Amino acid sequence: MLVRITITLFLFAIGVLAQSKPFVSNVWVADNGDGTYKNPIIFADYSDPDVVRVGEDFFMTASSFNAAPGLPILHSKDLVNWRIVNHVFHEQYPSDVFAKPQHGGGVWAPSIRFHAGVYYIYYGDPDFGIYVTKAKDPSGEWSKPLLVRQAKGWIDPCPLWDDDGNAYLVHAFAGSRAGIKSVLVINKMSADGTRLLDDGVMVFDGHETDSTVEGPKFYKVGGYYYIFAPAGGVPTGWQLALRSKNIYGPYEKKIVLAQGKTAINGPHQGALIDTPTGEWWFIHFQDRGAYGRIVHLQPAIWKNGFL
Q1: Does position 23 have pLDDT exceeding 90, yes or no?
Q2: Residue 298: beta bridge partners?
Q3: Per-residue pLDDT tens digits for 235-266
Q4: pLDDT, tens only, 100-110
Q5: Residues with catalytic function
Q6: Which residues pair with 238 in a beta bridge?
Q7: Backbone angles phi, psi at 191, to 5 degrees
Q8: Domain count, the chain
Q9: Using an 8 Å Cβ cutoff, are 64 and 57 in contact?
Q10: Which residue from 3, 10, 76, 231 lies 20 to 30 Å from 287 (Cα-Cα)?
Q11: Residue 202: CB partners within 8 Å, gap ≥ 6?
């Protein structure tokens, strides 16, 4: 009996020692450990990522479609190493509809922003309209999503609070619901970000050269308004940068990211982000079929007011 107890304790001790070692994923590590990284930075399905920087902290969210918990929140200090810290909601709204699986519905292409001490996430539900949710702390409790505009097929919203206090929202359309696509519209919005104040102005029509333009992200840099938006479809598209001195245009256009001769198909929508040291980066996704929509990080350089 004594021998058996000793052997048991010895085996238990081995197990404890083995478990005490720090966990390192054997699947994929983007950080090379020497100040460099490799793409993708997240080899997992995070469709339509968007990122905001507040101080030295970066927060990412992504499409969660009909999944609950929904709207993941990831945190990073260096844009390469990310950790899930929260989900915005644990129940998809409207609850009665999402009590049953709604494949392809739910949260499409959210945008995350920080304004006047508050974090905002806007997302489009292609069947119900545009929602907003708010939080003081992205790792804490978020407000119940508020339907800002009930509309069929309005998707991919992104807000912009201008220097004069006016607020705006840019969005795209889902052809499967709205019957139209390949155009971008800007609406004026209430300062608190909870209401759209007009029917909007179409600022870009991509039918001739940039069909299926969608996923717009709104910025103001150096006195210019910028809309970053992918076109050409998820598997084979390219990334546009639109620029204007007037928020309603006309907008100049430039293709700033494309597959070229690389093996990275797409590339598709994402986030333009700066660092505390003044660097600029672009985070986007690549459709890898069964692997999902994985996340890439690219350095960005400004030339003559464009990337």
Answers
A1: no
A2: 282
A3: 999 999 999 999 999 999 999 999 999 999 99
A4: 989 999 999 99
A5: 48, 214
A6: 231
A7: -60, -30
A8: 1
A9: no
A10: 76
A11: 183, 184, 185
We report the CATH number of the domain holding residue 113 as 2.115.10.20
Nearest Cα neighbor of 157 from 110, 209, 99, 89 is: 110
Location of structure tokens 């619901």: 177
Is the residue at 306 inside a domain?
Answer: no
- Other beta carbons less than 10 A from residue 197's beta carbon: 13
Among 118, 122, 120, CA closest to 136: 118
**Is the predicted pLDDT of residue 179 greater than 90, yes or no?**
yes
Residue 42 falls within a domain, yes or no?
no
Alpha-carbon distances, residue 126 vs 150, 171, 175 (angstroms): 10, 12, 10
Beta-strand runs (E) in the chain: 50-54, 57-61, 70-76, 83-89, 108-115, 118-125, 129-135, 146-150, 154-161, 167-173, 183-189, 201-205, 217-221, 224-231, 238-244, 252-257, 268-274, 280-287, 293-300
Q: Is 88 helix (H, G, I), strand (E, B) or coil?
A: strand
Residue 22 lies in a domain: no
DSSP class of residue 187? E
CA gap 302, 282 in Å, rounded: 12
Does residue 14 lie in a domain region?
Answer: no
* DSSP class per residue in 209-268: TSTT----EEEEETTEEEEEEEES-TTT-EEEEEEESSTT-PPEEEEEE--TTSS----E
Q: Give CA–CA dist 191/165, Å, rounded.
A: 7
What is the domain range of residue 274? 48-300
